[in-house]
Design brief:
alpha/beta, Arc Repressor Mutant, subunit A, Rossmann fold, seven-stranded mixed beta sheet, binds S-adenosylmethionine
Length: about 350
Protein backbone atom coordinates (compact mmCIF):
# COMPACT_ATOMS: atom_id res chain seq x y z
CA UNK A 1 0.00 0.00 0.00
CA UNK A 2 1.26 3.50 -0.80
CA UNK A 3 0.76 6.42 1.57
CA UNK A 4 0.20 10.12 1.06
CA UNK A 5 3.16 12.37 1.81
CA UNK A 6 0.94 15.35 2.90
CA UNK A 7 1.10 16.08 6.66
CA UNK A 8 -1.89 15.21 8.90
CA UNK A 9 -2.67 16.74 12.35
CA UNK A 10 -1.68 14.12 14.96
CA UNK A 11 -5.22 13.91 16.52
CA UNK A 12 -6.80 12.76 13.28
CA UNK A 13 -5.82 9.30 12.11
CA UNK A 14 -4.23 9.47 8.69
CA UNK A 15 -6.61 7.96 6.14
CA UNK A 16 -5.30 5.03 4.17
CA UNK A 17 -4.88 6.22 0.62
CA UNK A 18 -3.71 4.69 -2.59
CA UNK A 19 -2.64 7.93 -4.26
CA UNK A 20 1.06 8.63 -4.01
CA UNK A 21 1.98 12.29 -3.65
CA UNK A 22 5.12 13.77 -5.10
CA UNK A 23 8.29 12.72 -3.29
CA UNK A 24 9.95 15.37 -1.15
CA UNK A 25 13.45 16.63 -1.82
CA UNK A 26 14.54 14.86 1.39
CA UNK A 27 13.16 11.57 0.04
CA UNK A 28 14.90 11.95 -3.28
CA UNK A 29 18.35 13.16 -2.27
CA UNK A 30 19.41 9.81 -0.70
CA UNK A 31 18.66 8.04 -3.98
CA UNK A 32 21.07 10.31 -5.79
CA UNK A 33 23.67 10.14 -3.04
CA UNK A 34 23.56 6.34 -2.99
CA UNK A 35 24.42 6.37 -6.71
CA UNK A 36 27.50 8.46 -5.97
CA UNK A 37 28.41 6.23 -3.02
CA UNK A 38 28.12 3.13 -5.24
CA UNK A 39 30.42 4.74 -7.80
CA UNK A 40 32.99 5.54 -5.08
CA UNK A 41 32.82 1.95 -3.81
CA UNK A 42 33.14 0.47 -7.30
CA UNK A 43 36.21 2.63 -8.07
CA UNK A 44 37.72 1.65 -4.72
CA UNK A 45 37.25 -2.06 -5.47
CA UNK A 46 38.62 -1.92 -9.02
CA UNK A 47 41.66 0.02 -7.78
CA UNK A 48 42.16 -2.59 -5.09
CA UNK A 49 41.93 -5.39 -7.66
CA UNK A 50 44.34 -3.85 -10.19
CA UNK A 51 46.91 -2.68 -7.61
CA UNK A 52 47.04 -5.96 -5.68
CA UNK A 53 45.84 -4.32 -2.43
CA UNK A 54 42.88 -6.69 -2.14
CA UNK A 55 44.98 -9.76 -2.97
CA UNK A 56 47.58 -8.77 -0.36
CA UNK A 57 44.92 -8.31 2.34
CA UNK A 58 43.33 -11.64 1.41
CA UNK A 59 46.72 -13.29 1.98
CA UNK A 60 47.29 -11.60 5.34
CA UNK A 61 45.45 -8.92 7.33
CA UNK A 62 47.64 -5.83 7.80
CA UNK A 63 47.84 -2.23 8.91
CA UNK A 64 47.90 0.37 6.15
CA UNK A 65 51.62 0.93 6.83
CA UNK A 66 52.44 -2.78 6.58
CA UNK A 67 50.35 -3.05 3.44
CA UNK A 68 52.14 -0.11 1.87
CA UNK A 69 55.47 -1.60 2.87
CA UNK A 70 54.65 -5.01 1.42
CA UNK A 71 53.57 -3.55 -1.93
CA UNK A 72 56.11 -0.71 -2.11
CA UNK A 73 53.35 1.93 -2.07
CA UNK A 74 52.86 5.30 -0.42
CA UNK A 75 51.60 4.74 3.17
CA UNK A 76 49.36 7.82 3.17
CA UNK A 77 47.65 6.82 -0.10
CA UNK A 78 47.22 3.24 1.08
CA UNK A 79 45.61 4.50 4.31
CA UNK A 80 43.17 6.58 2.25
CA UNK A 81 42.29 3.51 0.16
CA UNK A 82 41.83 1.32 3.26
CA UNK A 83 39.41 3.79 4.81
CA UNK A 84 37.35 4.02 1.60
CA UNK A 85 37.27 0.20 1.32
CA UNK A 86 36.16 -0.02 4.96
CA UNK A 87 33.39 2.48 4.23
CA UNK A 88 32.33 0.47 1.18
CA UNK A 89 31.99 -2.62 3.39
CA UNK A 90 34.80 -4.47 1.64
CA UNK A 91 37.23 -4.36 4.60
CA UNK A 92 36.75 -4.93 8.31
CA UNK A 93 38.97 -3.72 11.13
CA UNK A 94 41.25 -6.28 12.71
CA UNK A 95 43.26 -5.00 15.65
CA UNK A 96 45.12 -1.92 14.41
CA UNK A 97 44.77 -3.05 10.82
CA UNK A 98 42.34 -4.41 8.27
CA UNK A 99 41.15 -7.72 6.84
CA UNK A 100 38.84 -8.56 3.95
CA UNK A 101 35.17 -8.81 4.94
CA UNK A 102 33.60 -12.28 5.07
CA UNK A 103 33.31 -13.86 1.60
CA UNK A 104 34.97 -10.86 -0.09
CA UNK A 105 37.92 -13.00 -1.20
CA UNK A 106 35.50 -15.43 -2.87
CA UNK A 107 33.38 -12.76 -4.53
CA UNK A 108 36.19 -10.46 -5.66
CA UNK A 109 39.29 -12.62 -6.13
CA UNK A 110 38.49 -16.30 -6.58
CA UNK A 111 38.14 -16.70 -10.35
CA UNK A 112 37.31 -20.41 -9.87
CA UNK A 113 34.26 -19.72 -7.70
CA UNK A 114 30.73 -19.78 -9.15
CA UNK A 115 30.13 -16.65 -7.04
CA UNK A 116 33.05 -14.64 -8.54
CA UNK A 117 32.05 -11.11 -9.63
CA UNK A 118 35.44 -9.36 -9.47
CA UNK A 119 35.69 -9.29 -13.26
CA UNK A 120 32.62 -7.07 -13.57
CA UNK A 121 34.44 -4.16 -11.88
CA UNK A 122 37.20 -4.08 -14.47
CA UNK A 123 34.76 -4.61 -17.37
CA UNK A 124 32.75 -1.61 -16.15
CA UNK A 125 35.83 0.63 -16.29
CA UNK A 126 36.95 -0.40 -19.79
CA UNK A 127 36.50 2.28 -22.49
CA UNK A 128 34.28 -0.12 -24.48
CA UNK A 129 31.61 0.11 -21.79
CA UNK A 130 30.77 3.75 -21.09
CA UNK A 131 33.42 5.99 -22.69
CA UNK A 132 32.96 4.89 -26.27
CA UNK A 133 29.17 4.80 -25.87
CA UNK A 134 29.07 8.40 -24.65
CA UNK A 135 31.42 9.52 -27.41
CA UNK A 136 29.08 7.89 -29.95
CA UNK A 137 25.79 9.19 -28.54
CA UNK A 138 25.31 11.48 -31.53
CA UNK A 139 26.75 9.33 -34.29
CA UNK A 140 25.35 6.05 -32.94
CA UNK A 141 28.42 4.44 -34.49
CA UNK A 142 28.45 0.66 -33.96
CA UNK A 143 31.39 -1.73 -33.73
CA UNK A 144 32.05 -5.47 -33.64
CA UNK A 145 34.34 -7.70 -31.63
CA UNK A 146 37.37 -7.17 -33.86
CA UNK A 147 37.15 -3.43 -33.02
CA UNK A 148 37.60 -4.10 -29.28
CA UNK A 149 40.97 -4.22 -27.51
CA UNK A 150 42.77 -7.36 -26.27
CA UNK A 151 42.25 -5.95 -22.74
CA UNK A 152 38.49 -5.95 -23.36
CA UNK A 153 38.51 -9.57 -24.57
CA UNK A 154 40.51 -10.54 -21.46
CA UNK A 155 38.08 -8.65 -19.20
CA UNK A 156 35.05 -10.30 -20.86
CA UNK A 157 36.70 -13.71 -20.37
CA UNK A 158 36.87 -12.84 -16.66
CA UNK A 159 33.13 -12.12 -16.50
CA UNK A 160 32.19 -15.14 -18.64
CA UNK A 161 34.19 -17.60 -16.53
CA UNK A 162 31.81 -17.85 -13.53
CA UNK A 163 28.94 -18.39 -15.99
CA UNK A 164 30.80 -21.47 -17.30
CA UNK A 165 31.64 -22.50 -13.73
CA UNK A 166 27.92 -22.55 -12.87
CA UNK A 167 26.97 -24.17 -16.18
CA UNK A 168 29.50 -27.02 -16.15
CA UNK A 169 28.64 -29.37 -14.59
CA UNK A 170 25.95 -28.19 -12.08
CA UNK A 171 23.79 -26.23 -14.55
CA UNK A 172 23.87 -28.99 -17.17
CA UNK A 173 22.90 -31.52 -14.49
CA UNK A 174 19.55 -29.73 -14.22
CA UNK A 175 18.70 -30.66 -17.81
CA UNK A 176 16.79 -33.97 -17.66
CA UNK A 177 18.66 -36.87 -19.26
CA UNK A 178 21.73 -34.89 -20.30
CA UNK A 179 24.28 -35.68 -17.56
CA UNK A 180 24.32 -39.39 -18.36
CA UNK A 181 25.08 -38.76 -22.04
CA UNK A 182 27.92 -36.43 -21.10
CA UNK A 183 29.43 -38.99 -18.75
CA UNK A 184 29.27 -41.85 -21.23
CA UNK A 185 30.69 -39.65 -23.99
CA UNK A 186 29.22 -37.64 -26.85
CA UNK A 187 29.86 -34.63 -29.07
CA UNK A 188 29.48 -31.15 -27.56
CA UNK A 189 29.63 -27.77 -29.31
CA UNK A 190 30.26 -24.43 -27.58
CA UNK A 191 28.86 -21.78 -29.92
CA UNK A 192 30.48 -18.33 -29.49
CA UNK A 193 33.21 -20.01 -27.44
CA UNK A 194 35.26 -16.81 -27.08
CA UNK A 195 38.73 -17.45 -25.71
CA UNK A 196 38.03 -21.11 -24.95
CA UNK A 197 37.31 -21.22 -21.21
CA UNK A 198 34.12 -23.22 -21.82
CA UNK A 199 35.66 -25.57 -24.39
CA UNK A 200 38.42 -26.46 -21.90
CA UNK A 201 35.92 -26.79 -19.04
CA UNK A 202 33.71 -29.13 -21.09
CA UNK A 203 36.65 -31.24 -22.27
CA UNK A 204 38.15 -31.63 -18.80
CA UNK A 205 34.81 -32.25 -17.03
CA UNK A 206 33.65 -34.83 -19.59
CA UNK A 207 36.78 -36.75 -20.62
CA UNK A 208 34.84 -39.05 -22.96
CA UNK A 209 33.40 -36.16 -24.98
CA UNK A 210 34.63 -34.53 -28.18
CA UNK A 211 34.27 -30.74 -28.01
CA UNK A 212 34.02 -28.18 -30.79
CA UNK A 213 34.29 -24.44 -30.13
CA UNK A 214 32.99 -22.01 -32.76
CA UNK A 215 33.51 -18.24 -32.69
CA UNK A 216 33.42 -15.42 -35.22
CA UNK A 217 36.31 -13.46 -33.70
CA UNK A 218 39.79 -14.43 -34.96
CA UNK A 219 41.66 -13.09 -31.92
CA UNK A 220 39.39 -15.01 -29.52
CA UNK A 221 39.89 -18.25 -31.49
CA UNK A 222 43.66 -17.70 -31.33
CA UNK A 223 43.45 -17.32 -27.54
CA UNK A 224 41.22 -20.40 -27.36
CA UNK A 225 43.81 -22.41 -29.30
CA UNK A 226 46.51 -21.44 -26.78
CA UNK A 227 44.24 -22.22 -23.81
CA UNK A 228 43.24 -25.63 -25.21
CA UNK A 229 46.88 -26.53 -25.87
CA UNK A 230 47.95 -25.39 -22.39
CA UNK A 231 45.21 -27.55 -20.83
CA UNK A 232 46.43 -30.60 -22.76
CA UNK A 233 43.07 -31.30 -24.41
CA UNK A 234 43.91 -30.37 -28.01
CA UNK A 235 43.32 -34.00 -29.10
CA UNK A 236 39.62 -33.71 -28.14
CA UNK A 237 38.88 -30.05 -28.90
CA UNK A 238 38.36 -28.64 -32.40
CA UNK A 239 38.19 -24.88 -32.87
CA UNK A 240 36.37 -23.30 -35.79
CA UNK A 241 36.54 -19.66 -36.83
CA UNK A 242 33.08 -18.98 -38.24
CA UNK A 243 30.04 -16.76 -37.78
CA UNK A 244 27.29 -18.83 -36.17
CA UNK A 245 25.04 -17.69 -39.01
CA UNK A 246 27.30 -19.75 -41.35
CA UNK A 247 28.02 -22.63 -38.97
CA UNK A 248 28.01 -26.05 -40.63
CA UNK A 249 29.50 -28.91 -38.59
CA UNK A 250 30.52 -32.31 -39.89
CA UNK A 251 29.50 -34.49 -36.92
CA UNK A 252 25.97 -34.34 -35.40
CA UNK A 253 26.17 -32.99 -31.84
CA UNK A 254 24.44 -34.30 -28.72
CA UNK A 255 24.70 -30.96 -26.94
CA UNK A 256 25.12 -27.39 -28.17
CA UNK A 257 25.69 -24.71 -25.52
CA UNK A 258 25.86 -20.95 -25.84
CA UNK A 259 27.23 -18.90 -22.96
CA UNK A 260 26.32 -15.18 -22.61
CA UNK A 261 26.36 -14.70 -26.40
CA UNK A 262 23.02 -15.78 -27.87
CA UNK A 263 21.66 -12.23 -27.59
CA UNK A 264 24.55 -11.07 -29.79
CA UNK A 265 23.65 -13.09 -32.88
CA UNK A 266 23.28 -10.94 -35.96
CA UNK A 267 20.45 -13.22 -37.11
CA UNK A 268 19.21 -15.18 -34.11
CA UNK A 269 16.70 -17.25 -36.11
CA UNK A 270 19.30 -18.33 -38.64
CA UNK A 271 21.69 -19.30 -35.82
CA UNK A 272 18.95 -21.27 -34.02
CA UNK A 273 18.14 -23.07 -37.26
CA UNK A 274 21.84 -23.92 -37.69
CA UNK A 275 22.01 -25.22 -34.11
CA UNK A 276 18.93 -27.41 -34.70
CA UNK A 277 20.50 -28.78 -37.90
CA UNK A 278 23.78 -29.46 -36.04
CA UNK A 279 22.04 -31.58 -33.38
CA UNK A 280 21.27 -35.28 -33.55
CA UNK A 281 17.56 -36.14 -33.03
CA UNK A 282 16.90 -35.73 -29.29
CA UNK A 283 20.01 -33.55 -28.89
CA UNK A 284 19.91 -30.58 -26.51
CA UNK A 285 20.47 -26.85 -27.02
CA UNK A 286 21.26 -25.07 -23.73
CA UNK A 287 21.32 -21.26 -23.71
CA UNK A 288 23.12 -19.77 -20.72
CA UNK A 289 22.58 -16.02 -20.53
CA UNK A 290 21.73 -12.90 -18.56
CA UNK A 291 17.93 -12.74 -17.98
CA UNK A 292 17.27 -9.09 -18.74
CA UNK A 293 14.33 -7.72 -16.70
CA UNK A 294 11.05 -7.18 -18.51
CA UNK A 295 9.46 -4.98 -15.82
CA UNK A 296 10.32 -1.56 -14.41
CA UNK A 297 10.58 -3.16 -10.98
CA UNK A 298 13.13 -5.60 -12.35
CA UNK A 299 15.11 -2.78 -13.95
CA UNK A 300 15.34 -1.10 -10.56
CA UNK A 301 16.62 -4.22 -8.78
CA UNK A 302 20.37 -4.53 -8.17
CA UNK A 303 20.81 -7.21 -10.89
CA UNK A 304 18.64 -5.13 -13.24
CA UNK A 305 20.81 -2.08 -12.72
CA UNK A 306 24.00 -4.04 -13.39
CA UNK A 307 22.53 -5.60 -16.53
CA UNK A 308 21.39 -2.14 -17.68
CA UNK A 309 25.05 -1.11 -17.49
CA UNK A 310 26.05 -4.07 -19.67
CA UNK A 311 23.51 -2.87 -22.26
CA UNK A 312 25.81 0.10 -23.01
CA UNK A 313 28.36 -2.30 -24.52
CA UNK A 314 25.69 -4.44 -26.17
CA UNK A 315 24.18 -1.37 -27.87
CA UNK A 316 27.54 -0.61 -29.46
CA UNK A 317 27.62 -4.06 -31.07
CA UNK A 318 24.02 -3.45 -32.10
CA UNK A 319 22.14 -5.77 -29.78
CA UNK A 320 20.67 -5.91 -26.29
CA UNK A 321 20.45 -8.54 -23.56
CA UNK A 322 17.07 -10.29 -23.85
CA UNK A 323 14.40 -11.28 -21.33
CA UNK A 324 14.74 -15.00 -20.65
CA UNK A 325 11.26 -15.74 -22.02
CA UNK A 326 12.46 -14.58 -25.46
CA UNK A 327 14.43 -17.85 -25.61
CA UNK A 328 11.31 -19.95 -24.96
CA UNK A 329 9.71 -18.26 -27.96
CA UNK A 330 12.87 -18.71 -30.05
CA UNK A 331 13.19 -22.43 -29.30
CA UNK A 332 9.46 -23.03 -29.85
CA UNK A 333 9.62 -21.19 -33.17
CA UNK A 334 12.29 -23.64 -34.33
CA UNK A 335 10.44 -26.76 -33.26
CA UNK A 336 12.45 -27.60 -30.12
CA UNK A 337 10.57 -29.72 -27.56
CA UNK A 338 10.88 -30.48 -23.83
CA UNK A 339 11.67 -26.84 -23.07
CA UNK A 340 13.01 -26.11 -19.61
CA UNK A 341 14.59 -23.34 -17.61
CA UNK A 342 16.64 -22.86 -14.45
CA UNK A 343 17.67 -19.73 -12.62
CA UNK A 344 21.26 -20.15 -11.45
CA UNK A 345 21.62 -16.63 -9.97
CA UNK A 346 19.57 -13.44 -10.38
CA UNK A 347 21.90 -12.61 -13.30
CA UNK A 348 22.19 -16.05 -14.86
CA UNK A 349 19.47 -18.28 -16.30
CA UNK A 350 19.44 -21.39 -18.45
CA UNK A 351 16.90 -22.15 -21.16
CA UNK A 352 16.97 -25.47 -22.98
CA UNK A 353 15.13 -27.55 -25.53
CA UNK A 354 15.59 -30.76 -27.53
CA UNK A 355 15.60 -31.37 -31.22
CA UNK A 356 12.65 -33.51 -32.29
C1 LIG B 1 30.44 -12.09 -24.46
S1 LIG B 1 31.60 -13.02 -25.39
C2 LIG B 1 31.39 -14.59 -24.64
C3 LIG B 1 32.45 -15.57 -25.00
C4 LIG B 1 32.35 -16.89 -24.23
N1 LIG B 1 31.14 -17.61 -24.54
C5 LIG B 1 32.43 -16.61 -22.74
O1 LIG B 1 31.43 -16.78 -22.02
O2 LIG B 1 33.51 -16.22 -22.27
C6 LIG B 1 30.75 -13.14 -26.92
C7 LIG B 1 31.47 -13.95 -27.99
O3 LIG B 1 30.51 -14.30 -28.95
C8 LIG B 1 31.07 -14.20 -30.24
N2 LIG B 1 29.94 -13.99 -31.14
C9 LIG B 1 28.89 -13.17 -30.97
N3 LIG B 1 28.03 -13.27 -31.99
C10 LIG B 1 28.54 -14.19 -32.83
C11 LIG B 1 28.11 -14.74 -34.06
N4 LIG B 1 26.97 -14.35 -34.60
N5 LIG B 1 28.89 -15.66 -34.66
C12 LIG B 1 30.05 -16.07 -34.09
N6 LIG B 1 30.51 -15.59 -32.92
C13 LIG B 1 29.76 -14.65 -32.30
C14 LIG B 1 32.03 -13.04 -30.14
O4 LIG B 1 33.02 -13.11 -31.14
C15 LIG B 1 32.58 -13.22 -28.73
O5 LIG B 1 33.73 -14.00 -28.72
Amino acid sequence: MTTSRTSTPSSIPAPATTTEGPATLADTAPKVLSLIAGYMGARTVSMGLRSGLLRQLADSPATADDLADALGMDPFYVAVWCRAALGAGVLERQGAGFRLGDHMATLLLDTSSPAYVGGVFTVAEAPEMFGRFEASLTSGERMWWEDTSPEWIAAVTGTGTPFYTRLVPAGLEQVPGLAERLTTGCTVVDTACGSGVGAVRLATTYPRCQVTGVDGDAHSIELARERVAAAGVADRVTLVHSALEDMALEEPATLVVNNISMHECRDIDRVTGNVRDALEPGGWFVISDFPFPDTDEGLRSTPGRIMSGIQFFEAQIDDQLLPRAAYDELLSRHGFTDLGTASLTPMHALTWGRRR
